[in-house]
Design a protein that fits this description.
By secondary structure, this protein is mostly helical.
Length: 192
């Protein structure tokens, strides 16, 4: 990872993934500090827009980032981007605070915002097995297909950017993604 400068650049999606992986693998405090500096102010604004006071918003940010520290190893880039994952944690904590503090601003419950029920042990085991099978299937893709899938789905880059980065035509990127997805569907058809 590059050194942190006084004029720190905004984190790209790939930077966010790398920082989170460093936290998960080695408890890297500098990586956590950088993620905190990037997401802290954004989370505070997000929480305050949902009706919490500055003090409570700061507490929610602290709890959110503490959860990020503790649960970094659970992050799966195949399921969501880092920002989506972190903001979901903040949203759920905000809802919890609002439920506890009925004297605060009440928001109408939106069923789409209800937190997912916790997974049972069996469901977690099945999800882990599915994830392992997907990883194994990805090793059976060609190097070209694997490269575009990683850039498209894990780095969340648009196809145009992938084409520029790899120096290939846009149509080739789309073709490789389509062929890779067909191959993965074939290899994993019993999972659907």
């Amino acid at each position: 990872m590059t050194m942190i400068s006084d004029q720190e650049q905004p984190l790209t999606s790939q930077d966010q993934i790398e920082l989170l992986m460093e936290i998960a693998s080695s408890g890297d405090r500098l990586a956590f500090e950088r993620l905190f500096r990037h997401f802290g102010p954004r989370l505070k604004n997000f929480v305050m827009r949902r009706g919490l006071s500055v003090t409570v918003a700061e507490e929610v940010v602290q709890e959110t980032m503490l959860s990020v520290w503790r649960k970094a190893s659970y992050f799966d880039p195949a399921r969501a981007g880092v920002a989506t994952w972190i903001f979901t944690i903040a949203r759920n904590l905000t809802i919890d605070y609002q439920r506890r503090d009925r004297s605060g601003v009440e928001l109408d419950e939106d069923p789409s915002e209800a937190p997912d029920p916790p997974l049972s042990g069996e469901a977690m085991l099945m999800a882990d097995e599915r994830d392992e099978r997907v990883r194994a299937a990805m090793t059976r893709l060609s190097a070209d297909q694997l490269a575009v899938v990683k850039l498209s789905f894990f780095s969340e880059k648009p196809h145009v950017e992938i084409a520029e980065e790899l120096g290939i035509p846009l149509g080739t990127v789309k073709s490789r993604v389509r062929l890779a997805m067909q191959r993965l569907r074939t290899l994993l058809e019993d999972l659907s």
